[in-house]
Amino acid sequence: MKTQLFLRFTQGLIIGAPFIFGGWLLWQELVPSGVFVVEKTPGTSSPFLDDLIPGSRASSSKTDAQGDLVQVLTGDPVYLFVHPHRSFETITAEIWFKNANVPIIEFGGLVFADHQAFDLHPLQNLLLDQSSWSRIQEGDRLLLQRELTYHSLEDFFASPPPVEQVATYHDDWSISYEPVFYTSSSVMQITDLSFRGHHTIKTYVKDETLSFSFAYMDMNREEGDDSVQILVFNEEDQAVAEARMTDDGVTKATALPSFLQTITVSASDLSEGVYKIELNVGRDIFFRSIATPQQKWVFVRSLFLADEVGYRDTPMGTQLVTNGKQFSFETRHAEGVQEVEIGGQSVSVTAPFETVTQTIIQPGLAILSVPLGDIEIQSDGMIATSAGTFFQPDPVSLVASSDLDTLGVDYILATYMPPRREGEWWVAEASFDASMLAQEQGAWKFAFSLPRILEQEGSVDVGKIRMIWMREAFTWSSFWQFLRAYVFP
Amino acid sequence: MFFHKQHTISEQLAGTIFFTSLVSYIVFWILDALRPGFVSRYLSVHLFLLVGILSGAWFGSAVSSWKERSWLSYVFCCFFSILVGILCWIVGVDLGILRVWLVLFGLLTPWIFYLLIRRVS
After folding, report:
1. In this structure, are B73 and B110 located in the same domain?
2. Residues B1 and B50 reside in one and the same domain
3. Which end of chain B, N or C, is more open, meaning fewer C-beta atoms within 10 Å of its C-beta?
4. CB-CB under 8 Å, A25 with B37
C-alpha cells in the first residue's frame, strides 16, 4: 500500500514536472508582473544579453587585478545587442564598471537604424567630477562656475550669462538668440552645396516667413525606400511645419540617380526665435542646393559633403565657416582622399573609411576648405556656408576634448548624476523609452561611447550589466478589455 | 508493444518517464517552433528527447512481457516517420538536392528502427 502510494506520488511528480516547467515558461514569456530583469556578467551566457563587441575593442572575459570578471573596453564605440522576447515600455540599464582615466563614458540605445543614431546617456564624466570649479548640484542638474557668480540654479536661469560663455552637457537649456541690427529679407539666396543624408539645421526667424527649398537627387546606391521628410520645430520642440516627398520608385541598388527634384518647407506667422529643421532622409538622398530668404542658418555639428558623380564633371569644392574646435573627417571613396584646410591648418585625409581628427586653438570663427567634397565632417560647433549666415543659437556642447579656455567658457550646465560607488565599482544607470528604440532583426542595439579613449590610452572594465524591462502589468480588467475588443467586438 | 499491463515498479516508473518525456518533447518542440525561443532560450528541447531515449531503453529492459499490437506500432512509426521527415527538411535547408535524400532517410529511419527492434526481440 505504502509502496503504491509512493509510486503514484512519484508518477504525479514526473507528470507534473513538465506542467510546472511549462507554467514557468509561460510566466517568463507573458511577464504578468510587468517587470522583467535580465543580468549578465562577463564569462556567463544569457539568452537576452550578448557579450560586448567587437572583439577588437572589447576583450573576452578576463579576471582583473581585484579578481573580478570584466570585459575590457579599449576602443570606441562598443556595442551590446539585447534580445527582448516581447514588447516593453521602458528599459533601465545598470552598468557596473571601473574607470581610471577615460574622460567621458556614455551608454545609449539605437533610435534611427538608417543613420545609426544613438540616444546617449552619461554614465561618468570625469571632466565634471574632477573639476575644481565652483559647483552647485540640484537634483540631476549641475552648474559649474569658473568664478562663483550664482548661488543657485534659480539665480542662473533668472539672469543667465551670454550664451557664448556657457557650455552644456546633456542639457537642453538655451537662451533666446537676439541679434543686433537684424532686418528680415524676402530675397531668395541660393547656396550650391552637395551634401547627403540626415542633417539638422538651425535658423533664425523674425517677422518673416520661414522657407527652405532643397534641390535633391535620389542616388539609388543602396537598397530601400528613399522618401524625404523635412520637419521644422520651434524652441519648445513643437513641430510647426512639415514637407514630404515619396521615393522615386526605384528601391533596388541600381546606382541610377533620379532627376533633380525640389522639396520646399515653409511656415508663416512664426514668432521670433530659433527654429530647428530636421532633414529626415537616408544616405541615398543627395542635396544639391538650398534656397532660402533666411539670413541666419547653420548646420548643427555635422555636415556630410557628398560626391558629385552624376551631377558635375569635376567636383566644385566647398568653403565653410565654423566655430568648432574639434573635428573629425572621413571619406567613403578613394576619390575623396584630399587635403582639407581648417583654421589655417592642413589635414590629410589619406584613405577611405579612416577617421582623421583635428583640433584647432584659433578663437572665434575658422574657415574650413574642402576642395573635393565627399567628406563627412563632425564637429563640436556650428557649420555655415558663409560668415554672413553664421550664428550661434546654442551654448557650446561639452565634449571630451573641449578646451574651455580657448572656447571662452566660464559656466558649465549639465544634466548629470555621477555614478555611485560600490566597493571597487562605479555603478551608473540609464533609462530609455523602449518605443523610441529601433530594432535590428528583433534586437535592441546599445552602444558604449568612449570618446578619446585611444588618445588617452585608457580602458574601461565593464562588469555586470543589469537591465530592468517594464511593461504594463497584467490585470483582469485589461484582460476583459482585450476579450471585448478582439473576441467579442 | 507499448500498451500492456504493467507489473513492476520499475516498469511503471520507466513507462511514466518515457511517455511523459516523449509527449513533453513533442509539445515543447511545437511551442518552440510556433514561438521561437520560448523554450530554447532556457534549455534545449532535445533534452526531453534524450530523457525519452534513456527512459525508453530502461522501459524496454524493464518490461517483462508484452503483447504486440502491430497496428499501433504502425501508427507510431508513421507518426515518427513524418516528424523526423519534417525535422530533416528544416535542418537540411542549405543542402540543396541532398535535402530530398535526407528527408527520405528520415522518413525511413523509424521503420528501420522498428524492424531492428522486432528482429532483436
Report:
1. yes
2. yes
3. C
4. no
Going from N- to C-terminal start, the domains of chain A cover 33-122+422-468, 312-381
ipTM higher than the 0.90 cut? no
CB contact under 8 A, A25 and B38: yes
Q: Could you tell me which of A291, A280, A174, A164 has the C-alpha nearest to residue A234?
A: A174
Q: Do B42 and A28 touch (CB under 8 A)?
A: yes
From the list B9, B24, B42, the residue facing A47 with the nearest CB is B42
pLDDT tens digits for chain B (121 residues)?
444 555 688 888 888 998 899 899 989 998 998 888 999 999 999 999 899 888 888 888 877 666 666 777 788 788 888 888 888 888 888 888 888 888 988 888 888 888 877 776 6
- In terms of average pLDDT, the best of A311-315, A376-380, A443-447 is A443-447
- Using a CB–CB cutoff of 8 Å, tell me whether A87 touches chain B: no
Domain coverage including residue B52: 1-66
The three three-digit cell numbers of residue A214, written as one number? 532643397
Residues B61 and B109 in one domain: no
How far B32 CA sits from the closest chain A CA (Å)?
11
In sequence order, the 6+-apart residues with CB closer than 8 A to the CB of A47 are: A83, B37, B41, B42
Question: Does B100 lie in the same domain as B76?
Answer: yes
Residue with cell 551670454: A162
- B55 shares its domain with B104: no
Q: Least CB-CB distance to A18: which of B13, B24, B41?
A: B24
Is B37 within 8 Å of chain A by CB?
Answer: yes
The helix or strand, by DSSP H or E, that contains position A280, with its residue range, turns out to be: strand A273-280
Number of domains in chain B: 2
> What DSSP line would sit under A373-428, residue for residue?
---EEEEEEEEESSTTT----SPEEP-TT--HHHHT--EEEEE--PPEEETTEEEE
Confidence category of residue A390, pLDDT binned at 50, 70, 90:
very high
Q: Do both B60 and B86 map to the same domain?
A: no
A-B Cβ pairs (cutoff 8 Å, strict): 37
Residue A62 near residue A56, CB atoms below 8 Å: no
CA distance B40 to chain A (A): 9
- pTM as predicted: 0.70
Distance of CA A79 to the CA centre of its chain: 14
The answer on B28 and B18 residing in a single domain is yes
B109 touches chain A (CB under 8 A): no
> What pLDDT is stored for residue B43 in this prediction?
92
CB A460 within 8 A of CB A75: no
A22 lies within 8 A of chain B by CB:
yes
Q: What percent of chain A has pLDDT over 70?
A: 99
Instruction: Using an 8 Å CB-CB cutoff, list chain B residues near A47.
Output: 37, 41-42
The CATH architecture one would assign to domain A33-122+422-468 is Sandwich (2.60)
Instruction: Output the pLDDT for position A489.
Output: 61
- Reference B33, options B108, B89, B105; nearest CA is B89
Cβ separation B20–A14 shorter than 8 A: yes
Q: Could you tell me if B60 and B77 lie in one domain?
A: no
Closest-CA residue of B relative to A16 is B20
